[in-house]
Amino acid sequence: GVALVSILILLFALGGIYLDLRDRRRAAAEQSRMRGLADAAVEGLLVCKDHVIVTANRSFMNLVDVPQSFIAGRHLLDFLPPTVVTRLIEAPNTAIETELAAADGRTLPVEVILRTVDFSGTPHQAIAVRDLSARRTAEEHIRFLAHHDALTGLPNRASFSRQLEEEIAHARRTGQKFAVLAIDLDRFKEVNDLFGHPAGDALLQRVGQALLSAVEGQGSAARLGGDEFAILA
User: Fold this and answer.
1) Does residue 227 have an active-site annotation?
2) If you placed Cys at 223, which of 109, 154, 177, 186 could pair as Cys (CB 3.0 to 4.6 Å)?
């Protein structure tokens, strides 16, 4: 009877060990699957506990240019401003635009949002980090095109008109004189007809560079449209 009871206890123990190992394998497989999903995300993802980073996906590591071993255990303040960390905790599920500090000292424009998640059976904070560099570059390009000619990079007609009005107002107040030169290229249409529009565009760019060099420090040049340019001296 003692032997039978001992064998039963041993079998129960082995069964418990088997179930424990099975649960661990499932947990490891689930963690590996979640890691794969997180690494497949384009946005950076952080999992934190009390402002301390537990893990991060590959996109975030690429943003800050650090290895995985460097991430775990680091504080959020190593990458985000203190005011932003406070706002994330106080206002979860709210997108916040800020600057992300990279390992090499660079700062990247990002959008961050925090949500509470269950990680390894306990509540953690998941932070999504979206890189805004491309959007900021596009916005800057749009702002540039609003005031500049796309082909030559010179101020456009609208920008030149505003500058001219300001100069006229300044001249009336101070009595200072200035000059406006209107320039157009002779036989420019023949360049396009004989050599093609790419050659005409290249010629306009060369003219724009020449005008910039001529007025450097003494005025400004603009392209009004077509082969028409203007100089404010």
Assistant:
1) yes
2) 154
Compute the distance between CA of residue 79 and CA of residue 214 in angstroms, rounded to an integer: 47
Distance CA 119, CA 230 (A): 65
Of 118, 149, 184, 227, the catalytic one is: 227
Q: Among the listed ranges 17-31, 82-96, 155-169, 174-188, which one has the minimum average pLDDT value?
A: 17-31
User: What one-character-per-residue DSSP string does 105-144 give?
Assistant: S-EEEEEEEEEEEEETTEEEEEEEEEE-HHHHHHHHHHHH
Query: If you compute the radius of gyration of the chain from its CA atoms, what whole number of angstroms results?
Result: 32
Could you give the CA distance from residue 231 to residue 215 in angstroms, rounded to a whole number? 8
The predicted structure's pLDDT at residue 162: 93
End-to-end CA distance of the chain: 112
Question: What pLDDT, in 10s, does the model give residues 29-74?
Answer: 445 554 554 555 668 888 888 888 888 888 888 888 877 777 878 8
Residues 187-210 have a mean pLDDT of: 93
Instruction: For residue 103, give both structure tokens.
Output: 């390992």
Task: Determine the Cα–Cα distance for residues 171 and 169; give it in Å rounded to an integer.
Answer: 5
